[in-house]
Design a protein that fits this description.
Length: 407
């Protein structure tokens, strides 16, 4: 790779051992993928911060790195973790305490303690064509697709390395010619809510591999921000997509021709049958009784929390059922100010911050059956947490919370 003088100094250790190791890692990645040079980035987002990912050895590594004086060079946000730092949900100290230490080590390096998979809801919003280095699959596909910023599918270590150096190898989705679609879907099913968009993403994602899809037929639907977030999360978890286009909706797909560039593809149809298959793909529950209902993966927006508060008005969560609404500290503060948190908690639910079911250990608290409107949670929870899962709309999930059964 061709390094400029500043990058050579970093590689030679002029900015300390942490930066030297980071640049060495990034050069190796660049060599593997044929990058000719480094690309300055405006921000980084680090994932893999759960104790599940780090382990105790990773915790000690992060603390050792922070103790050397390592500091990020660009704004660097942190992904969701496995505990709620604002309250005790009953997790053991052996789980909670190391998890807190991991976050504190990264914050000591200058990372922002956002603890969320949606840092863009907290003001960290890359612009069109801006280069960033983000980890976390749903965040990656959002900034690439909905914002038109440019990032590869980074891992936690490479995203931290980018934060510490302000650089990332220039390959993959940083190059305009690699951002065109090569799979075409025409959406003929009537998508009514978030769960429908999740079923679309899950069905298509499973059949994509790492290809880039373009969706047609959606201009009139004009999907909401939350619907696009859900679609991307489902695509990225059920498959390996890091970018999608939607004709007339996303910034690099004003037309089908713009989305495809010089590429050609045969159009596939997503209709009622495929929509039903997407729902079936995300449902693993068999026992109708539900004891955990979790919403907010990716973390809930203020609009979603307002809707949940309205849907719970005059109702109460059934005995023996736990309702968690996951979000981040900033959105929770706004929801509290608006009275939504109090309304949800009067109904027997909990609005959590920082936390995500799939990166935590709810199974250690004795939960047995999960209901969710999150395609990402429905994909990961059966294997990662051992929880059979019912997948459906937020209305069906809240009905399950109130009755204790999936219907």
């Amino acid at each position: 790779m061709k390094l400029n003088d500043e990058e050579k100094r970093m590689l030679d250790g002029a900015d300390g051992e942490a930066v030297r190791m980071s640049m060495e890692m990034l050069v190796a990645i660049g060599d593997i993928y044929g990058a000719e040079r480094m690309q300055p980035v405006s921000s980084a987002h680090v994932a893999g911060l759960s104790l599940k990912s780090h382990g105790l050895a990773g915790m000690e590594w992060a603390e050792d790195l922070a103790s050397t004086g390592a500091r990020v060079k660009v704004p660097t946000t942190l992904n969701v973790i496995g505990v709620d730092r604002s309250r005790d949900l009953g997790f053991s100290p052996d789980w909670r305490d190391p998890q807190i230490r991991i976050g504190e080590a990264y914050e000591k390096m200058g990372c922002y303690g956002t603890s969320s998979c949606v840092p863009y809801y907290q003001g960290f919003l890359p612009r069109l064509k801006q280069h960033v280095a983000w980890a976390e699959s749903s965040a990656i596909i959002f900034v690439n697709s909905v914002l038109g910023a440019r990032t590869n599918r980074e891992g936690g270590p490479s995203a931290l390395a980018a934060g510490l150096t302000g650089r990332t190898p220039y390959y993959g989705f940083h190059l305009a010619e690699n951002r065109h679609a090569n799979v075409c879907y025409r959406v003929e099913a009537d998508l009514k809510d978030l769960a429908d968009y999740g079923a679309l993403g899950a069905y298509v994602g499973k059949r994509l591999g790492t290809d880039t899809p373009v969706f047609g037929g959606m201009e009139a639907a004009n999907p909401s921000l939350e619907q696009l977030v859900t679609l991307g999360a489902a695509l990225a978890s059920s498959g390996g997509a890091a970018l999608f286009h939607m004709v007339g909706v996303t910034p690099e797909a004003a037309t089908l021709e713009q989305a495809l560039g010089s590429r050609k593809c045969e159009e596939r149809i997503f209709g009622k049958k495929e929509l039903a298959a997407g729902y079936e793909q995300l449902t693993s529950g068999k026992e109708k009784k539900v004891d955990l209902v979790a919403i907010g993966c990716p973390h809930s927006s203020l609009n979603q929390i307002a809707d949940i508060a309205r849907l719970l008005e005059g109702r109460h969560v059934a005995p023996g059922v736990t309702l968690w609404i996951h979000t981040n500290i900033a959105i929770k503060a706004l929801a509290g100010q608006m009275g939504y948190v109090a309304a949800i908690e009067r109904a027997g639910g909990l609005v959590t911050q920082d936390l995500c079911v799939v990166l935590s250990v709810p199974e250690a608290l004795g939960f047995r059956v999960l209901a969710t409107n999150s395609p990402k949670m429905a994909f990961y929870a059966p294997g990662g947490n051992g929880l059979p899962t019912w997948y459906g709309s937020v209305e069906r999930c809240l009905d399950a919370a109130v009755t204790g059964e999936w219907s």
